[in-house]
TrEMBL record:
Domain (TTI1 C-terminal TPR): residue spans on this chain: 959-1074
Biased composition, class Acidic residues, residue ranges: 989-1004
Organism: Australozyma saopauloensis
TM spans (from-to): 12-30
InterPro entries the record matches: ARM-type_fold, TELO2-interacting_protein_1, TPR_TTI1_C, TPR_TTI1_N, TTI1_rpt
Ranges for region Disordered: 978-1004
Identification of the protein by name: TEL2-interacting protein 1
GO cellular component: cytoplasm
Length: 1224
């Protein structure tokens, strides 16, 4: 004991430490089952002495706590001794204290980093007293650095979490609370001039917040609700203030701490304080928590969920109906407004109070929560909630997060649900209707960007409100109806006029939620839905009125701008140069001249004619997913963005789920059929098209005939019903829609076909969009009629416009909607078959086409396009039924009368080509079999058909046998009429003498049997097409001649089935075909090109392709073209620049004759050379011995220069010539 006596200042304290050490040794080693725990006190040194010398209390018998305490004691004992010495020495530097505090904190927390469960790390309170004793002495120093304070707070946090909270002592907590508040907040707690987090490092804020959290968690459940709680409530207010200030100082990188702070506040104010106590701090807590969210960017979802949970707990605690003494007010109900929605739509932070009736008041009591308090606090809370909801659900990032994370949406729904269940009457004045706006914003987040309407969310929203009692629903109904009406007539109208995408989408979502909620409340109260029908009707009228005005404004601007441009052009105003400095409707800066920029300007005549047939070959008659996607993403009105128009469509479609009676009411209100205004101006288009577009969206979700209620007559077998009464009848509204569609189609046709040169492109685009609306109406209404009614009352008038629109360019919006309309009609009544649709209505269609042919104004390029569409869909059936003969006859008459109109004639020949293609389909099997039989190799020694030596010997043997006279031989009959005095070889006569022959000398020709397997009427039709095509080969239009040559190429194999009829026709026009094959313009030896050189070159390929077919077909028959083959070669050699180029002398002569051939020879393609070579070699293989050897050798030499493909069937003679060329 002498060494302790030598220390005057610290002897007693060290004695205490020795006693403690001995006690620990005895406790943990001699009596392992005993653990002595005492409660520490934070007071003066004399109080500490008393505390350490008082008897210990036996409260626990846990081996793990003892073992853990022994381990911690071994580690921290040297540090505590050194820290105690340093604390008692006033000369100890702050750096030394910092080192010791850091070491102590690190040693205490080190085992926690290794343990998987911190809850198992518990030490005895005696050890906690031992650790805290040097800290208590250190706190007596006049100043402590912030870093040292941070370590002290960490040590206190450790002791609270791992020792004192397991045996909480209210005396200890009463003394420890002010200490933690002072260490964490400093002087700011008393002055309140600045935040406790100002100027503090993040590490200090973290340590201070953790210490306060640990202290609050240690407090018992009734710690703040006892009788003597004034000081404790003061500490609670200070700790709450500090946590909120620390919360506002955090950023997104400290979200774990933020979530912990929010969770601590939620726990404390949910179970440890009363409603009266929470009402004092409610406004400040709500304000600071919401400001934390508004000021901190990119908070994670768990943090936001924690904020919503804290707001929910505070709201229920403070405003619960059970905790307030509420009585019903005598004030009358007044209409509510939609100002809360307006606050969500405002871009600035300005807010306007919501003036609602006060239905419930708080009776006057001595409590803090009076009626005046309820009014002021709930109004302030409403503004805070709106600001929070706007930031949470309307900002782009938060909106997407609310949709993708179900926890966030569910927490918000739970928040609103708790308010309705617990605080309906207390918050009825300010908050209840605001919750509808919050749910509207949530619904908007889920339906933004044109997404499908989330019906599950609407059901969740409605269930929250209809769970109320009947009395609450009655209180809610009338203000909700008034608010919805105000929302439609003010906010929705304003959003449609401003055309702001975000505001419009929010208004539509809010209107949908409000109307759906009104329907649910009325249904729960078992009342009729008349009010909601009126609201929907008002919404439709508002949308129709605003869209009409916007569309009229747009079309008026287009017409006005077009007139101004026309007046400038007529007056020659020099300012037009600046006005015309546009490229693709984009005004260029002054330094760029639009006239100097190369661009392709489409021909106005070509653009107006649409050249249907040039694009019809690219039409896909099957509706695929791409077409559906284009329809879902497309814009018809083009007044808003694509997403906004999609939102409007979804909003309107939600109204179409009602009965047919409701649909009739809506359509009657939209179309107003009593108005009979003249259709003379483009400004009338919106009046017709906008209601039609709205009706289309209503019909998209309405019931079809098959979906309506069943007919009881179907189940009555033995009862006779009047057959004259139709079972299924369509409504008058359906006919109103059809009439409106007819008017729109007429208007669009008038404005796009009359004065097209003065029609602006934008007006044409507008008419096309509105025409698509009308076409969509026809398709949608197909499900509202029975097949008989639709076929006799609708298709008889609308089938031709549908096909006319379908004949437009495949990329046009008119074509797309015509295609979808035909698809809907065929699915509804014709088993999904367009062929059946056309065939069953062919009578109406042929009559319509005949009427167009009989009127000069009907001869438009679209006419041939419609015929082509009909042929492509069901041409085979119509050809078999002979229903197109009259139409085709009219086409030939038109060609005779208007052959100068090249576009019209060209379109007709595209139709003729399709007729030939369908004929080939009709006789495909016969053509295939015939080709297989006649394509066998035949020798030049035909008709003997000898291909081998054995066949020749067999022929010689047969000649030795006697040939019997045929049974039908008549020796008295003259089978051949011989001309007297003319040798037998000259009996046929020369071609020059044919015209001089007297027809009277000819023998009567017997009726020959029809030799072609093609029906005679169809064959004659193809033959007539071939004749007209040959006549058109002299037409000046190169495009027409190219199309004619393609048609002739398709027709020739069909005509060759009756070869004797074809040969005279081919002989008449064969020279003209040779001229086209060489790129010439005449048969004359002295000629000059009068046409554009490029057009002549373009004609060579289709002409050669036709000639190739001629020679190939001749190889399958009697080889009548054998004598023509040498003529073909001589003409090619003399007139073709390509073949003449191989003969240098002939080429020079051609160049001298026409210098443009030098250019032509350089422009020819490999395709032309390929065709020349193939035609010549095919002829050699076909006619073989009829061609002289020297001439054949010359032809093969030329073809070897032009190019020979390896897969060609050359024949034996050609191969021999090639061998000679290669080896000699």
């Amino acid at each position: 004991m002498n060494e302790y006596d030598q220390k005057d200042n610290y002897g007693y304290l060290e004695l205490n430490l020795l006693i403690v050490n001995v006690l620990f040794f005895v406790t943990f080693h001699l009596s392992p089952k005993l653990m002595l725990i005492t409660n520490p006190t934070i007071c003066s040194q004399s109080q500490i002495k008393t505390r350490f010398l008082r008897p210990f209390v036996l409260i626990m018998d846990v081996d793990s706590v003892r073992e853990r305490s022994v381990e911690v004691f071994r580690d921290i004992k040297p540090i505590c001794v050194d820290l105690l010495d340093a604390s008692n020495d006033s000369c100890t530097s702050e750096s030394t204290l910092e080192h010791l505090l850091r070491s102590l904190s690190t040693t205490l927390y080190k085992p926690l980093t290794n343990d998987s469960d911190e809850g198992e790390h518990v030490i005895s309170t005696k050890l906690a007293d031992y650790i805290f004793m040097p800290i208590s002495i250190l706190l007596k120093r006049p100043t402590i650095l912030e870093e040292n304070t941070r370590f002290i707070l960490q040590i206190i946090t450790y002791l609270l979490n791992h020792s004192w909270k397991h045996n909480a002592d209210e005396i200890l907590l009463d003394q420890l609370g002010p200490l933690v508040v002072f260490l964490a907040g400093g002087d700011s707690i008393n002055t309140r001039k600045e935040s406790a987090a100002d100027g503090k490092l993040a590490e200090f804020i973290n340590s201070a917040a953790r210490a306060i959290e640990a202290f609050l968690i240690c407090t018992p459940r009734n710690y703040y609700t006892g009788l003597e709680n004034s000081k404790r409530l003061s500490v609670l207010g200070d700790t709450t203030t500090l946590l909120l200030e620390f919360l506002q100082a955090l950023d997104s990188s400290s979200e774990a701490l933020a979530q912990s702070l929010l969770g601590t506040l939620t726990q404390v104010y949910s179970i440890r304080v009363s409603a009266q106590q929470a009402s004092f701090v409610f406004p400040g807590m709500v304000s600071k928590v919401i400001n934390f969210y508004l000021q901190t960017k990119n908070l994670h979802t768990p943090t936001v969920v924690a904020i919503i949970e804290l707001l929910r707990v505070l709201t229920i605690k403070v405003f619960a109906d059970d905790s307030l003494n509420l009585s019903e007010s005598s004030n009358e109900l007044v209409p509510s407004t939609a100002d809360s929605v307006k606050l969500l739509l405002q871009d600035d932070s300005a807010t306007t109070p919501l003036d609602l009736p006060v239905l419930f008041v708080v009776e006057q009591t001595t409590e803090h929560r009076t009626d005046a308090w309820l009014k002021a606090t709930s109004k302030q809370y409403k503004l805070s909630l709106l600001a929070f909801s706007k930031a949470l659900l309307l900002s782009p990032n938060s909106k997407s997060r609310a949709v993708s994370n179900s926890k966030l949406a569910n927490s918000l729904i739970g928040f609103v649900s708790s308010i309705l269940l617990k605080c309906f009457r207390s918050l009825y004045q300010e908050i209840v209707l605001v919750t509808v706006d919050i749910m509207s914003a949530l619904h908007h987040a889920f339906t933004d960007g044109g997404a499908l309407e989330n019906e599950d969310l609407l059901e969740k929203i409605s269930k929250m409100y209809i769970m109320q009692g009947r009395s609450n629903l009655l209180l809610l109904l009338e203000p909700l109806l008034n608010k919805t009406e105000n929302l439609i007539n003010s906010q929705l109208d304003s959003a449609l006029r401003l055309m702001t995408e975000e505001k419009l989408a929010l208004c539509l979502s809010a209107t949908s939620v409000h109307i759906h909620l009104c329907e649910s409340v009325l249904g729960s109260l078992m009342k009729k839905s008349t009010e909601t029908k009126i609201l929907k009707k008002e919404a439709l009228q508002v949308i129709s009125r605003c869209l009409k005005q916007s569309l009229v404004s747009q079309s008026s601007k287009v017409i006005k701008a077009e007139k101004e441009n026309l007046l400038r052009a007529m007056s020659g105003d020099g300012s037009t140069e600046e006005a015309s400095n546009y490229l693709d409707d984009v005004r260029l800066p002054p330094g760029i001249d639009a006239r100097k920029i190369a661009s392709t300007t489409p021909n106005r005549a070509t653009e107006n004619s649409l050249l249907y047939v040039s694009s019809l070959n690219r039409i896909n008659f099957e509706v695929d997913s791409t077409d559906e996607q284009k329809n879902s993403l497309g814009q018809l009105l083009k007044l808003f963005s694509r997403s906004s128009e999609a939102q409007i469509c979804k909003f309107l479609q939600s109204f179409g789920k009602g009965s047919n009676e409701t649909m009739e009411t809506f359509v009657d209100a939209l179309l107003e059929p009593d108005q009979n205004e003249p259709l003379t101006s483009p400004s009338l288009l919106p009046d017709k098209a906008v209601p039609l577009w709205i009706a289309n969206n209503l019909y998209k979700n309405s019931q079809s005939i098959s979906e309506e209620s069943f007919d009881v007559a179907d189940f009555m077998v033995d009862i006779d019903f009047d057959d004259n009464s139709p079972v299924k009848q369509c409504s008058e509204a359906d006919f109103f829609v059809l009439d409106a569609a007819k008017d729109v189609l007429y208007l669009c046709n008038e404005f796009t076909t009359i004065d097209q040169a003065l029609t602006k492109r934008e007006l044409i685009a507008l008419c096309e969009s509105l025409q698509a609306v009308a076409l969509e109406s026809i398709g949608l209404l197909s499900t509202k009629f029975s097949k008989e009614a639709f076929q006799t009352e609708v298709l008889i008038e609308y089938l031709y416009p549908l096909l006319e629109s379908f004949a437009q360019a495949p990329e046009s919006i008119v074509h797309l909607h015509a295609k979808l309309a035909l698809k809907r009609i065929s699915d509804a009544h014709y088993n999904g078959s367009l062929q059946q649709l056309i065939f069953e209505n062919s009578d109406y269609l042929v009559d319509s086409l005949s009427i167009r042919f009989s009127v000069s104004g009907g001869l438009t390029p679209s006419l041939s396009g419609i015929i082509l569409i009909v042929l492509k869909i069901s041409g085979v059936q119509l050809l078999q039924s002979n229903q197109l003969q009259d139409i085709i006859a009219e086409m030939f008459i038109v060609i005779d009368s208007y052959h100068g109109y090249s576009v019209l004639v060209e379109n007709f020949f595209v139709v003729f080509q399709e007729i030939i293609v369908k004929t080939k389909e009709l006789y495909h099997d016969q053509l295939s079999d015939r080709t297989k039989i006649t394509s066998e190799h035949k020798s030049a020694y035909y008709p003997w058909s000898m291909t081998s030596k054995d066949e020749m010997l067999r022929l010689l043997k047969d000649n030795e046998d006697l040939v019997d006279i045929p049974d039908d031989f008549d020796p008295q009959k003259e089978y051949f009429k011989r001309k007297p005095g003319v040798p037998f070889s000259d009996q046929l006569g020369d071609s020059d003498d044919e015209e001089d022959e007297a027809e009277t000398d000819e023998l009567p020709v017997e009726n020959e049997k029809w030799s072609s397997f093609i029906a005679q009427n169809i064959y004659l039709l193809v033959e007539q097409i071939f004749k007209y095509g040959c006549q058109m080969l002299t037409h000046p239009s190169a495009k027409l001649r190219i199309q004619v040559l393609r048609t002739l190429k398709e027709a020739y194999p069909l005509l060759s089935t009756n070869y004797t009829t074809l040969m005279p026709l081919l002989a008449d026009y064969f020279p003209l075909l040779l001229v086209l094959c060489t790129g010439s313009s005449t048969l004359s030896d002295h000629w000059r090109d009068q046409e554009d050189l490029q057009n002549l070159v373009n004609l060579i390929v289709p002409a050669l392709e036709l000639l190739e077919v001629v020679i190939e077909e001749d190889s399958k028959h009697e080889k009548f073209m054998a004598s023509r083959y040498v003529e073909i070669w001589n003409f090619f050699r003399d007139r073709s620049p390509i073949i003449a180029g191989i003969f240098a002398e002939n080429l020079n002569a051609l160049i001298r004759e026409n210098s443009s051939y030098q250019l032509s020879s350089n422009r020819v393609s490999d395709r032309i050379k390929h065709l020349y070579s193939k035609i010549l070699l095919t002829g050699l293989r076909t006619y073989e011995r009829t061609v002289p050897d020297l001439l054949a050798h010359e032809i093969v030499r030329v073809c070897s220069v032009l190019g020979i493909e390896r897969d060609w069937d050359l024949g034996r003679d050609v191969q021999n010539h090639l061998w000679v060329l290669q080896n000699c």
